[in-house]
Amino acid sequence: MDFAEAKKVFSEADLLVGETEVAAAIGRLATEITDCLKDADPVLLCIMNGGLIFTGQLLTQLRFPLQIDYVHATRYGHEVSGTHLHWTVRPQLDLRGRTVLLLDDILDEGVTLAAIADYCRQQGASKVLMAVLVEKLHLRKVTPGMRADFFGLEVGDRFLFGYGLDYKGYWRNAAGIYAVRGL
């Protein structure tokens, strides 16, 4: 995909959730997460690159002490599908005995989130929770019935971009949740 094609994709995309609604969802999540984890001494793990924008906007609204780290594990790269999980960066903080909150842009099929959660448990995390900006509604989850512990928005089964979600490496910066026309 090149720059001109990326511009065309955006111009033809369907806006599903506007910036104001996304900000409200993040604010609601911050309240829910604060209520749940305010006494837990948690480690928050941003899942790069998709979780970057969501994590950044969420963190300043959390009203308790926490530690943050990140992981970079992907199945997609700059493609629209993938099967093998590739680890670029693993957490640097010690997870033993800690509550870990994974922060990501989307729960789609859940393969990446499930693998990262399993890794955290193998490292001795006492509890692993998931918070996502978008939970995609479909029946293709890696574990039937899989849900995030905290989610901001539920969206239908389309190819999405914006607020951290990308389309072939572009448009993570779009201020809203968009669906690629025809996908």
Q: In the CATH hierarchy, what is the architecture at level 2? A: 3-Layer(aba) Sandwich
State the CATH class.
Alpha Beta
Mean pLDDT, all residues: 93
Read across the widest sheet, the strand sequence of neighbours is: 4-3-2-5-6-7
Beta-strand content: 25-35%
Characterize the main sheet: 6 strands, mixed
Please characterize this protein's 3D structure.
- It is a single chain.
- The chain is of the alpha/beta class and 183 residues long.
- It has a single domain (19-158), classed as Rossmann fold (3-Layer(aba) Sandwich).
- Helix content is 27%, strand content 30%.
- The protein is built from four helices and nine strands.
- The protein has helices at 3-12, 19-37, 51-59, 111-122; strands spanning 14-18, 43-48, 67-74, 86-89, 99-107, 127-136, 150-155, 160-161, 176-179.
- The strands form two sheets. Strands 4-3-2-5-6-7 form a six-stranded mixed beta sheet. A three-stranded antiparallel beta sheet has the order 1-9-8.
- Helix 4 (111-122) links the parallel strand 5 (99-107) and strand 6 (127-136).
- It is globular.
Short description:
The chain has 183 residues and is an alpha/beta fold. Helices cover 27% and strands 30% of the residues.
What order do the helices and strands come in, and which of them pair?
Layout: H1 3-12, E1 14-18, H2 19-37, E2 43-48, H3 51-59, E3 67-74, E4 86-89, E5 99-107, H4 111-122, E6 127-136, E7 150-155, E8 160-161, E9 176-179
Parallel strand pairs: 2-3, 2-5, 5-6, 6-7
Antiparallel strand pairs: 1-9, 3-4, 8-9
Helix pairs in contact: 2-3
Key structural traits:
183 residues; alpha/beta; Rossmann fold; six-stranded mixed sheet; three-stranded antiparallel sheet; 30% strand
